[in-house]
Design a protein that fits this description.
A hairpin with a 6-residue loop joins strand 3 and strand 4. The protein has one domain. The chain has a three-stranded antiparallel sheet, with no helix packed on it. A two-stranded antiparallel ribbon has the order 1-2. By secondary structure, it is mainly alpha-helical. It comes from Microcaecilia unicolor.
């Protein structure tokens, strides 16, 4: 078993996917950035409400905290989503050696599934037969 963060991965899986540790590190970094964005966004929103908007928006402490948490959650979601997409692109690159943009252009330019002589059997680009 190979340690990957807190979990263990079978050696065959780790050997089959050599970029697994880089992807796991990238995902961990993305989640930590999201956590930091939540804390920073919530704190900044709370301070802004207290310092700048206190006279215009006379809200109780409960509403100030709620708005701060919602703002921090939106910031956290945005940062985590962006970083996770980067990690996904890294994983695709490590597995195929091509960027996702290159794969999209290859799929557009490659011919579709081939029809065979049999009734409605088609062959995919991977060589699988399907109806």
């Amino acid at each position: 078993m190979v340690n990957l963060g807190l979990s263990k991965v079978d050696e065959t899986v780790a050997a089959k996917h050599p970029g697994l540790s880089e992807y796991a590190a990238c995902q961990s970094h993305a989640f930590m950035k999201g956590t930091g964005a939540f804390i920073t966004g919530s704190g900044a929103a709370f301070v802004l409400q207290k310092l700048l908007l206190h006279r215009r928006l006379a809200l109780s402490m409960q509403w100030n905290v709620l708005l701060s948490i919602v703002t921090g959650s939106i910031a956290s979601y945005t940062v985590t989503r962006r970083e996770t997409q980067r990690c996904s692109n890294l994983w695709i690159y490590l597995e195929t050696g091509r960027t996702p943009e290159q794969l999209v252009t290859e799929n557009i330019l490659s011919p579709g599934p081939k029809e065979t002589a049999e009734s409605s059997m088609r062959e995919t680009k991977y060589g699988d037969s399907m109806e």
